[in-house]
Amino acid sequence: MAVGQLYQSKFLRGKNMKVFRQAVKVDQSGREQRSNFNRAISLPHCVTRVYDDRFKTQTLGQPAGIKSFGKRRKDLYDAEVRYWDSEVTRLFDAIHKKHKRTGYILIVSADHGSAFDKNHKKHSHGYDLHTSVLHVPMLICSSKMPARRVEKTAVGLLDITPTLVNLSGLKSDVEYAGTSLAPLLFGGLEWPDRVLFHQFYLAEKIRKGQDPLYGAAARNGRYNYMWDRREDEYLLFDYAEDPYEQTDLMEERTAIAASMDTMLKTWLYRVRNNYMKGHFESDPSFDEGGPYGYDAVYH
Fold it and tell me: Furthest-apart CA pair in the chain: how many Å?
């Protein structure tokens, strides 16, 4: 926690710090703890109104006042991205103006992306573990933090909570599934070998007596190793060189595939084994995540 403690007085002060401290209190209360945290870090209601207004008119096509890229699905998506970029800029400016003196930490990310390549002719997301869907932006902003672009390190949503705890200087005894990104934010070397784990898990299949785990994947700063359990097929892609993941490298880079396969199978075994032993019975999130848990990270 050294980095967070060092910068504690710079990021959050007064009422802002009090609200955040209350939100991340470690009391092992499960759902209540997450609820408090979500309330503390929710974006202002004005953003929700913008979101609602935008999608009420989505069927009309091109958003007003935004450059048109065409009439195809991906063209409309590009226009939506441009629209949101302009709105996020307004949001950033407003937050900076209001909270510059007291300090703030603003994180913007997403649960998934949308893709319109050959792998996504029918569904733009939600049915696979390709990098084009998993690789989404994460913006971490503060008036007290230097600008930096991190490109070679795989990061995930599970990193948000430990990063916020670290930057605010709070003490925590929790062993987070994610990792604080504070060292990266302040100029530390990137972690290109860090591995994220993902799953394609449909809990509703359990009610039909079907296997809910359709697939799993291991990703680092360059490779995406996927296991399609429906077809019992393994795929390896170099998404740094092949962003649309069209060329399977399983036969060409066998050593890399074997290494990532070992990590993926170890992770699946570990989280399933822990669940079956009842280690997570008090955690309501596993009612949805099932015995395979959620996305995780490995160093």
Answer: 58
Q: How far does Cα 76 stand from its chain's mean position?
A: 24
Name the token pair of 201.
């898990």
C-alpha distances (whole Å) from 148 to each of 42, 151, 185, 285 are 24, 10, 7, 33
31: Cα within 13 Å, side-chain hemisphere? 7
**CA separation, residue 269 to residues 20, 147, 191, 273 (Å):** 35, 39, 25, 6
Which domains are present in the chain? 2-105+142-185 (no CATH), 195-298 (3.30.1120.10)
CA distances from 139 to 49, 156, 230 (A): 21, 12, 35
Sole residue written with tokens 């359709």: 214
The per-residue pLDDT for range 225-270, each reduced to its tens digit, is: 999 998 999 999 999 999 999 999 999 999 999 999 999 999 988 8
Choice among 105-114, 161-170, 278-287 with the minimum mean pLDDT: 278-287
Q: Provide the pairing of β-strand 233-238 with 139-141.
A: unpaired
Stated pTM of the model: 0.71
Query: How wide is the angle at C-alpha 189 spanned by C-alphas 24 and 219, nearest 5°?
Result: 75
As a whole number, mean pLDDT of residues 184-199 equals 91
